[in-house]
Amino acid sequence: MELPELPFPLTAHGPDGDWSYRDGVLTGRAGPRQDRFVPPTGDGLEPASDAPRLLGAPEGDFQLIARVTVAFRAPFDAGVLYVHVGERAWAKLCLEYSPDVPTVCTVVTRGHSDDANSVTVDGDAVWLRVSRIGRAFAFHASRDGERWTFVRLFTLGEEKETGAALVGFMAQSPVGEGCAVTYDRIAFRAGPPSDLRDGS
Questions:
Q1: 117 three-class SS
Q2: Which ranges of the chain have pLDDT less than 70?
Q3: 72 vs 21, 95, 196, CA distance in Å?
Q4: Exposure of 200 by Cβ count < 10 A (0-12 exposed, 13-18 middle, 19+ buried)?
Q5: Prior bond to 99 cis, omega within 30?
Q6: How far apart are CA 166 and CA 200, in angstroms?
Q7: By the 8 A CB rule, do 143 and 153 touch?
Q8: How far is CA 131 from each of CA 2, 136, 164, 178, rounded to the nearest angstrom?
């Protein structure tokens, strides 16, 4: 799939997400009990769970931005901006019903997944941004698409160890019967934010 806002094509991964794009709006759907998570309490031998993803491979430093709207139906339903560098090396920036309040959440997986909640959200939509700065990635959220709240800065390992980064979109419904996710106001910018913590 090609989106005019992005300088790279997108390829579907995982279960069928019924992805579609029209008039600047990308939509996808998670099926029942679909998620992308490796429990930190596990023994390391369990397979990673999976959910619909639509990913591409940008070059260099970048910012991927979208307003994410989720038709919440069950706890932990979420719309996600996703970064992937390996089967056990990936990260999620989510608008998630966690478990009964819309919340910006993050998951970073390096072998096993961690899980952290950030700010709560009024309503079913929020702006999310993932940026690449050299070997690091940054997550931000915004209520208006103008002023950004710093959420997280992290790495997923050296690229020579993990492969080139894929970035894009994901939908999940870990305990529910599925949910629909909409992404609009999609934008791509070459280069990182000028400052990660000043709201720009």
A1: strand
A2: 43-48, 158-163
A3: 20, 10, 30
A4: exposed
A5: yes
A6: 24
A7: no
A8: 20, 8, 15, 28
Distance of alpha carbon 138 from the chain centroid: 12
* Distance of alpha carbon 76 from the chain centroid: 14
Parse the chain into domains and list their residue ranges. Answer: 11-190
Write the DSSP symbol of residue 33.
T
For the record, the structure tokens of 65 come out as 């931005």
Q: Cα–Cα distance between 69 and 65 in angstroms, integer?
A: 13
Sign of CA dihedral 128, 99, 88, 10: negative
48, 57, 195 from 77: Cα distances, Å: 18, 26, 31
Residues 29, 41: Cα–Cα separation, whole Å:
28
One CATH from 1.50.10.10, 3.40.50.720, 2.60.120.200, 1.20.140.10 for 11-190: 2.60.120.200
pLDDT in tens, 109-167: 998 999 999 999 999 999 999 999 999 999 999 999 999 999 999 999 765 555 689 99
